[in-house]
Amino acid sequence: MAKRALIIDDDEKARSILRVHLDKAGYLTSEAKDAETAYKILEENSFEVVTCDIRKVGGIKVLEHIKKEYKTLPVIMLTGFVNVETAVEVMKKGAVDYLTKPIKKDELLIALERAIQHKRLLEEEEAARVNMSRELEEAVKESIERTSELERAYSQLKRANFDMVKTLSGAIEAKDPFTKGHSYRVSQLSLEIAKRLNFLNLSEEQLEILEYGSLLHDIGKIGIKDAVLKKTSRLTTKEYAHVQRHTIIGEEIIRPVEIFRPALPLLRNHHEHFDGRGYPDGLKGKEINIYARIIAVTDSFDAMTSDRPYRKALTVEEALFEIRRVRGTQFDPQIVDVFIGDKIYDRYII
Ligand SMILES: [Fe+2]
């Protein structure tokens, strides 16, 4: 198919010289004597290449217009004067070549061929780019779909996990009716404290660990003898040692469940004392997992303010007095300060 070229030049003679050269080389030519005519012709036809005189037709403006409207259409600028600055300027603005008059036929044809070649490359690049962005778009869409599927599956799994935690914590309470609602209140109070300990800056996920960890903190009581759990008189040393084992048993029960593993230190160490005199490991201060330090306070508070087989519930004031008394020995002082200072205890009093 013949290649189409547009010649833009105000000078009739100059146009006809170009036309003769191009006709002989097999081009189909159109001519424009000014910018307006050129724009009109460009709107109605497509071309492989444009030659444009710089001076009288306002060639630089024409060049800018073409580059804006027909990005890949190559423009060869022609001028009667050799001027390096102008040459640099037009190349910067996107001209593919710059020729000085009088135009030599061979030079012109080579420039035209090169320009057309250049156009083809640009078009191929553009097609590849469009293709790539389409592929990318597809990939992004696919990945969004996959992500939301995963999110759905994840939230289902999470719901199932929480159901399992609730069932397990229900199992503890079924065995020890005196602790009805205890795990739930401990978990809520603990979350309130954790959110206020700004230095912790806990993520959603970490808060979840604290939540299910505190729901499960006494799960090990499943392994404690009923006779001991429900005993109304003072425990013997042996019985007390047996009850203490609920921390280790709890850890053993939960360890095989991978998703609950982050909560293991909380199960094992919620009876540690800040001064190192707790059980089962005798950990001290910050050696004790932060979740376990939080639960130590909320667990004790809720236990003190609930009826137990061996005693009646303390009043809130009495319980707070006791917590204050062991601030820094049994409990992390920072946690006690938040618990009492921010009146967290007020929220879930039974
Ligand atoms: Fe416990």
Q: Secondary structure elements and their pairing?
A:
Layout: E1 4-8, H1 12-24, E2 28-32, H2 35-44, E3 49-53, H3 59-69, E4 75-79, H4 84-92, E5 97-100, H5 105-175, H6 182-196, H7 204-216, H8 226-229, H9 237-244, H10 246-254, H11 264-269, H12 290-304, H13 316-325, H14 333-341
Parallel strand pairs: 1-2, 1-3, 3-4, 4-5
Helix pairs in contact: 6-7, 6-12, 12-13
The protein binds fe (ii) ion.
The site of fe (ii) ion (FE2) has 6 residues, from loops.
Mean pLDDT over the full residue set: 90
CATH class of the largest domain, named Mainly Alpha
Structure annotation, total helices: 14
CATH topology of the largest domain: Hypothetical protein af1432
Helix proportion of residues, in percent?
55-70%
Beta-strand residue percentage: 5-15%
- Which of globular, elongated, flat, extended, rod-shaped describes the shape? rod-shaped
Output the helix-strand order.
Answer: EHEHEHEHEHHHHHHHHHH
Q: Going across the major beta sheet, what is the strand order? A: 2-1-3-4-5
**CATH A-level architecture of the largest domain:** Orthogonal Bundle
**C-alpha-based Rg, rounded:** 42 Å
Unreliable segments of 5+ consecutive residues: none
Q: Find the CATH superfamily of the largest domain.
A: Hypothetical protein af1432
Oligomeric grouping of the chains:
single chain
